[in-house]
Amino acid sequence: MTDFNWTRDQFHLPQGMIYLDGNSLGPLPKMAPARVMEMMENEWGEQLIAGWNASGWMAQPTRVGDRIARLIGAEKGHVVMGDTLSIKVFQALAAALKLNPDRKVILSDSGNFPSDLYMAEGLVNLLGNGLELRIVAPEEVEDAITDEIAVTLITEVGYTTGRKHDMAKLTAKAHEHGVITVWDLAHSAGAIPVDLAGAGADFAVGCTYKYLNGGPGAPAFIYVAPRHAKTAQPALAGWLGHARPFAFEQGYDAGKGIERMRVGTPPVLHLTALEVALDVWDKVDMADVRARSIALCERFIAGVEEHCPQLSLCSPRDSDLRGSQVSFRFEHGYAVIQALIADGVIGDFRAPDVMRFGFTPLYTSEKDVDEAVGVLTRILRGALWDRPEFLERKAVT
């Protein structure tokens, strides 16, 4: 059984703050500053460039990838770290299209994160040749998977409402029709149990700064199924994805397996901080996380619906269809979120009217949930959100 009292103690949570935004940025692991400082002083400082060999920096992306693999049900040796999530979406999508060259349609849904859709749009415009990005409503994805689809680009858990797609079911339907699947796990990794190998997923990508607590700007990961590892062609043919990067050859020769999905220089500082967070995750069972997440979400929904009738639940009511966040709609949702933040309860807002609250069992308690409901109730009953400083939109919402 996971000891959630112990996991909570592993993170720095500012005094007086109730943090319900781990679905956007996880808090700082307490051991990260000392470990990163040690790396900077003893590895970077003393070893300088020798650190690439002496401290294993060059192998870090695949070493950390294997640790992520356990949390997403991936085979060892088939996950690698590096770059941003958008870059990894581009890589996976381009490679998937190359595996299905006679088809022209990328299928995604309107609940997908805009950056994923922007990457797909950019790739369609870049490649031309009749390629099309087709977007349907989330609930229409299954029926839209037909023999003309080349690739599905689906985020398993939607960023606004937390609606959860059935990965195994959609992947099976896709394969029945000869479709390659790309799954975005940005709101899945560390939030819900994921079984990429069991579902038969072809490609997957995800970020590490949300539920995995890698820190702002922490690198993304990419998964390539073993059956595609030797044939997937990286559109971004980076130096470190070459089979022999230090041969400095003029022509590109893709590296072995997942190594070919490396692009640029590993972000060693960020990967070092992420490894500290993964030390905590090594002691966590995802089934325990999921059970506690559901309990926390259900507790919050019940409290808000009892005391805040102005708000409308827009997340699925059925926990089996929901990730680890709860979203409510309210006309003045942005101002309410700002009022909550000013009172020490941190959630966030997504246009046009969605108030999001993330529930992260590693450090969120029942007491946090009850106190957050109490603060929200007081703000709504007194219309305390209706102040100029809460109505003015900030750059990050």
UniProtKB/TrEMBL annotation:
UniProt cross-references to SUPFAM superfamilies, sorted A to Z: PLP-dependent transferases (SSF53383)
Function summary: Catalyzes the cleavage of L-kynurenine (L-Kyn) and L-3-hydroxykynurenine (L-3OHKyn) into anthranilic acid (AA) and 3-hydroxyanthranilic acid (3-OHAA), respectively.
Record's keyword terms, sorted: Hydrolase, Pyridine nucleotide biosynthesis, Pyridoxal phosphate
Family, as annotated: Belongs to the kynureninase family.
Name of the protein: Kynureninase
Residues carrying N6-(pyridoxal phosphate)lysine: 210
Subunit structure: Homodimer.
Top-rank EC class of the record's enzyme: hydrolase
Top-level taxon of the source organism: Bacteria
Reactions listed under catalytic activity: L-kynurenine + H2O = anthranilate + L-alanine + H(+); 3-hydroxy-L-kynurenine + H2O = 3-hydroxyanthranilate + L-alanine + H(+)
Gene Ontology terms, MF aspect: kynureninase activity; pyridoxal phosphate binding
Residues given in the record as pyridoxal 5'-phosphate binding sites: 85-86, 113-116, 155, 184, 187, 209, 239, 265
EC number: 3.7.1.3
GO BP term (any one): L-kynurenine catabolic process
